[in-house]
Design a protein that fits this description.
The protein is α+β, with helices and mostly antiparallel strands. It is built from 17 helices and 9 strands. Helix 7 packs antiparallel against helix 13 and helix 13 crosses helix 14. The longest helix is centred in the middle third of the chain and has 32 residues. It starts with 5 loop residues before the first helix and ends with a strand.
Length: 491
C-alpha cells in the first residue's frame, strides 16, 4: 500500500522520530536501575495510584527490587525501598544522596530558599543555623519543656469546654502545636481563636491537601503542559504569599527593636546574623531565606506532629484496651502530677504505643524527595548526578522483615517479652542522614507530653453509632480523615 497523504506521512515520520528519541533516552545510562517500561510522553504515571502513590511505589518493589526506576513524564527517578536499602543510601552514602531535586510546584513557591528544599552551601548554612538556634532557644531543654507543659494545660482546658460532647479536634491540636514553634520563632503565643492564627492554620491545611492531590502530581510530572492550566500553581502561590506576607511584616517590625545583646527568638538571631554577614557575592542570611526558613519551620513544626497526635487519639478510640493500659501506666508513674519528659524512661508501654502510632500513622510515606549530588554506583546500579530519588519511608516503617505485624497497630513491636521498651532499627519516621528532621528532639518531647497529658485527663471515645475509619485522607502527609471524638473526663 502506498501512502500519499502528506498529513499521514508526516504523522508516521513524527512517530518514528519520537520513538527513536524515546529509545535513546531510555538507554542513556548503562546499568540504570530496572523498572516498569514507560510509555512515550506520560512515562509510568498511568500505573500509579494518584491519590496514594506511595502504595504503588511499595508494591512495585516486590517485582523490581529494593532499587528500581520510574518515569513520570520525562523525569526519571529512582525509588529506594526497605530499611536496609534506605539506610544504606541516607546514612552510608549520606553525601551522595543529600541533594534536593527541583520539583516544579515546590520550586515555584520556595525558589530554593529556606532549608527543606534548599541545596548546596545555602542549605548547609541554613541547616546549621536552624539546629544551633533551635538548641539555643530550648529544644530538648527545660525551657521548652515548660512551654509544652503550659500549652498542654491550655489544650486540656479547651477539650474540657466540650463537656464530653462530640467535636473535631483538628483545629485545637494544630493551634496547640503551633504555639510551641511560634514561641521559638516569634516569642509569642496565639489564642486559639486568634484570626491571624486561624488564617495561618487554614493555609497550612489547604497546602497539605493541595500538594498531595492528583493535580499537583500532574503539575510536577508535566509542568510545561500544566502551565496552560495554571489552577494548581496559582492556588499554591496565592496561599504561600499569604504566609510570606505575615512573616515579612513580623520580621520588619522586629527589626525596628532589634537588640544584639537581647536576642529573643529565631528571627532576632537571624537578623543579627544578617547584620554580621560580610558583603559578598554569596549572601545566605537574606530576607528571602528568612521568609522561607520560618515558613519551613512553622509548617513542618505544626503539620507532622499535630497529625501524629490526631492519629494517636483516633487509635486510642479504636483500641480502648490499649488506651486503658496507657492510662494505668500514667496513673502508676505520674499520678496526678504534671507529665515531664523524664517520666518517659519509666513508662515503657506508653513509649511503645507512641512509637507504634508514629510507625502505623506513616506521616511522611514518600519522604521529601532527595537527589544525587554526584554520579554514584549504589548497590550495583549507576545513578547519575541530579537524579531524583525517593527513599520510601512507607517501605521502612512497614518492612515485614523488621515488624512482625506491619499492617496492624501493634505496640508490641517495641516491647520485649518482659514488657521492656526495645528500640527497632527500622523505626525511621524522621528520615535519616543529612536531611533528617531538624526538629526531631522537639517533636519527641511534644508527642510524649501532649499525649500523656490528654490521656491523664480524659478517656477518648467515638460518638454513639460512629464508625472509626483508619483510612488516610488524600494529602501530602498521611493524615487521618476528619472525625469527631468525645473526651470523657477521668475521675
Amino acid at each position: 500500500m502506498t501512502i500519499t497523504d502528506p498529513v499521514t506521512m508526516l504523522s508516521i515520520i513524527l512517530c518514528i522520530f519520537v520513538a527513536i528519541l524515546y529509545a535513546r533516552r531510555r538507554n542513556t545510562y548503562h546499568n540504570f536501575p530496572p523498572g516498569p517500561t514507560p510509555l512515550p510522553i506520560i512515562g509510568n504515571i498511568h500505573i500509579l495510584n494518584m491519590k496514594k502513590p506511595y502504595e504503588t511505589l511499595h508494591q512495585l518493589s516486590e517485582k523490581y527490587g529494593s532499587v528500581y526506576s520510574l518515569q513520570l513524564g520525562e523525569e526519571k527517578m529512582v525509588v529506594l525501598t526497605g530499611y536496609e536499602t534506605v539506610k544504606d543510601a541516607l546514612v552510608n552514602h549520606a553525601d551522595e544522596f543529600s541533594g534536593r531535586p527541583k520539583v516544579p510546584l515546590f520550586h515555584e513557591i520556595t525558589k530554593g530558599h529556606g532549608v527543606i528544599f534548599a541545596n548546596f552551601e545555602s542549605w548547609k548554612v541554613m541547616r546549621r543555623f536552624t539546629i544551633s538556634t533551635l538548641r539555643d532557644f530550648g529544644m530538648g531543654k527545660q525551657t521548652i519543656e515548660n512551654k509544652i507543659s503550659e500549652e498542654s494545660d491550655c489544650l486540656v482546658e479547651r477539650i474540657k469546654s466540650h463537656k464530653g460532647n462530640p467535636f473535631d479536634n483538628r483545629l485545637i491540636i494544630n493551634a496547640a502545636l503551633s504555639n510551641i514553634i511560634v514561641s521559638i520563632l516569634l516569642s509569642h503565643r496565639f489564642d486559639y481563636e486568634d484570626p491571624t492564627l486561624l488564617k495561618l492554620l487554614k493555609v497550612i491545611n489547604e497546602m497539605n491537601t493541595l500538594f498531595g492531590s492528583p493535580m499537583a502530581m500532574m503539575y510536577n510530572a508535566f509542568p510545561s503542559v500544566m502551565s496552560w492550566f495554571p489552577g494548581v500553581q496559582k492556588r499554591a502561590v496565592k496561599m504561600i504569599n499569604e504566609f510570606h506576607t505575615f512573616i515579612r511584616e513580623t520580621f520588619t517590625a522586629q527589626k525596628k527593636h532589634l537588640d544584639v545583646n537581647d536576642q529573643r527568638n529565631l528571627i532576632d538571631t537571624f537578623l543579627v546574623k544578617q547584620q554580621e554577614e560580610k558583603p559578598s557575592p554569596e549572601l545566605y542570611f537574606t530576607n528571602e531565606n528568612l521568609i522561607e526558613l520560618v515558613t519551613d519551620l512553622f509548617v513542618a513544626g505544626v503539620e507532622t506532629t499535630s497529625t501524629t497526635l490526631r492519629w494517636s487519639l483516633l487509635l486510642m478510640m479504636k483500641y480502648p484496651q490499649i488506651q486503658r493500659k496507657v492510662q494505668n501506666e500514667i496513673d502508676k508513674v505520674i499520678g496526678s502530677s504534671e507529665p515531664q519528659a523524664a517520666h518517659r524512661k519509666d513508662m515503657p508501654y506508653t513509649d511503645a504505643v507512641i512509637h507504634e502510632i508514629q510507625r502505623f500513622g506513616n506521616i511522611a510515606p514518600a519522604n521529601v524527595p532527595h537527589a544525587t549530588t554526584q554520579d554514584v554506583t549504589f548497590r550495583g546500579y549507576f545513578i547519575p548526578k541530579g537524579t531524583q530519588v525517593i527513599p520510601l519511608l512507607t517501605s521502612v516503617l512497614y518492612d515485614k522483615n523488621h515488624f512482625q505485624k506491619p499492617k496492624e497497630f501493634y505496640p508490641e513491636h517495641f516491647l520485649d517479652a518482659g514488657g521492656n521498651f526495645v528500640k527497632n532499627e527500622a523505626f525511621m519516621p524522621f528520615s535519616a542522614g543529612k536531611r533528617s528532621c531538624a526538629g526531631e528532639n522537639l517533636a519527641k518531647m511534644e508527642l510524649f507530653m501532649f499525649f500523656t497529658k490528654m490521656l491523664q485527663n480524659f478517656t477518648f471515645q467515638a460518638p454513639p453509632g460512629a464508625t472509626l475509619d483508619l483510612t488516610p485522607a488524600v494529602a501530602f502527609t498521611c493524615s487521618p480523615m476528619s472525625y469527631l471524638m468525645c473526651a470523657v473526663p477521668r475521675t
